[in-house]
């Protein structure tokens, strides 16, 4: 009964890294701006739709892979396309922050929730207007799996999942490097810890906020792009459940903590995928039960530090 | 939420009485209004029920300043309480079904409230959300609750619940049974709504309500003056859950079938919260108005506009930016503003200029931002 356990655990790892990419965006936006962005799931969906257009166009330009080398080139093009799709989210996020979110920082939490909910609804219809109401599938999943890496490890496992795990690790590494080692990253953290002091030493908090919101949108979009080049398709309602799940992830990890987001995402991903085959009735509840348990024991989350990114 | 907002009611008593009578009149006339206008009776009824749940949520939001993001849990528990009684115990009396709904919701609210009462701010919101989703997941995957297909609220699967025999009375007077049932249920809803609003009014003006205000302003101080904070929050949470239970029970009676998604999913919780804000957090009946408006937008706008989500979004944006006190809460200020402009038409030009310049500023900001992002700082 447990022979397939490693396989489920690997699936959970893949799922966890997807969740991490979404939750990372949510957690840096919350950690710095203090806004719980309900529209985050729609930014993720938007990334998925843009990836459909861009990756679909790019792969349409080239022939299907025939051997390992062409498959690698194909994979590189798909990844570049996903990055380009996520890059589209940068100006989108910046514009949303500057035009809509900025006027309401000093308002009550509920108004920020209401505003981002309104943005969620509007973004849904923007996507419906541009791409239509039908689900769309890029359909490069099979070709991606032609890249031969799986036999090397002794178990047959889709290359695509390996790619996602690798990309997730790179994203985590980049974020840690950005916030730990770069000047901009340190300024962002300083702003997160004390806005007034940051302003006093000459930091433009407006620009930092815009940058962070754009970054959040970027990672949401990148997560969406990674999902839609896989077996998943892009559809209008796709943002809801990752949004709710990434709440769970950042709460388990501790609001505003990147390390927490990674650990939380992997915990949620692996536990749901491992539990589901044996207790299918727990599939939906598992992440929430986990969250309730963590919150009741450690209300600030596993790595909880208020308003400080680390 | 500032205290000042709570005292928007500096209207003279006469005006208030007139408004209350007017509101009641409109409520009672809804079935007739729906007949002569294109308004949908069922949607207004549904809106009132969600509004009732929002009134309960507002008790928590306005006084203890806690944002519950999982309040539909009690709405759903109420609905399922009624449905379980009707399906498995063949209960046909509407009142017994309602009582079952209230009992079920109270029990769940007691448990959840006990566990969340000590938490604050975003943790409170997310913990309530988590309990909501646990309940949702439990119901969706349990065969007792018939998974996503849900349960019927007809005893033995055939008969509508009886409403004190009043519907039978109307039927024998020559009315269509479906119509009779809906009318009686509607007036029952209105009666319960009025009673519950009065209860809320009594509650918030009682020492208990004042204590909740104190807790909302400063927990530490409230504890110092001897208020048992956690226990009071627990009680308030349970009471506000009961509103949801009643509303959910009535909703089950109205729909005659309960499915998990419309009554238990987390996003419906968000909608209930937004109804309260939309209608006016600082007012007593604002959440009811917000409920009717939001249910209308979400349910019916789709028949008139293709992009009804965006329409709802724009309405909510307008509320955030222009009506921070909600639709009902902003009425006095709005009335005063219109009055001033009637006396001095020159002000209107200023308004237009203000709107144009703020749009121009917004666009300029966005352009600058994009430029900075693309070409680096400045």
From TrEMBL, chain A:
The chain crosses the membrane at residues 12-36, 43-63, 69-90, 110-131, 160-179, 208-231, 243-270, 282-298. It is found in: Cell membrane. It is a multi-pass membrane protein. One of its GO terms (cellular component) is plasma membrane. Keywords: Amino-acid transport, Cell membrane, Membrane, Transmembrane, Transmembrane helix, Transport. PANTHER family: ABC TRANSPORTER ATP-BINDING PROTEIN, BRANCHED-CHAIN AMINO ACID TRANSPORT SYSTEM PERMEASE PROTEIN LIVH. Its main location: membrane. Belongs to the binding-protein-dependent transport system permease family. LivHM subfamily. It holds the Pfam family BPD_transp_2. It comes from the Archaea. InterPro entries: ABC_transp_permease (IPR001851), BCAA_transport_permease (IPR052157). GO terms for biological process: amino acid transport. This is Branched-chain amino acid ABC transporter permease. It comes from Natribaculum luteum.
Automatic annotation (TrEMBL), chain B:
Keywords: Cell membrane, Membrane, Transmembrane, Transmembrane helix. GO terms for cellular component: plasma membrane. The keyword rRNA processing does not apply. InterPro entries: ABC_transp_permease, LivM-like. The chain crosses the membrane at residues 12-30, 42-61, 68-89, 95-116, 123-144, 184-204, 232-252, 272-298, 305-323. It is a multi-pass membrane protein. It holds the Pfam family BPD_transp_2. This is Branched-chain amino acid ABC transporter permease. It is found in: Cell membrane. It comes from Natribaculum luteum. The keyword Transmembrane applies.
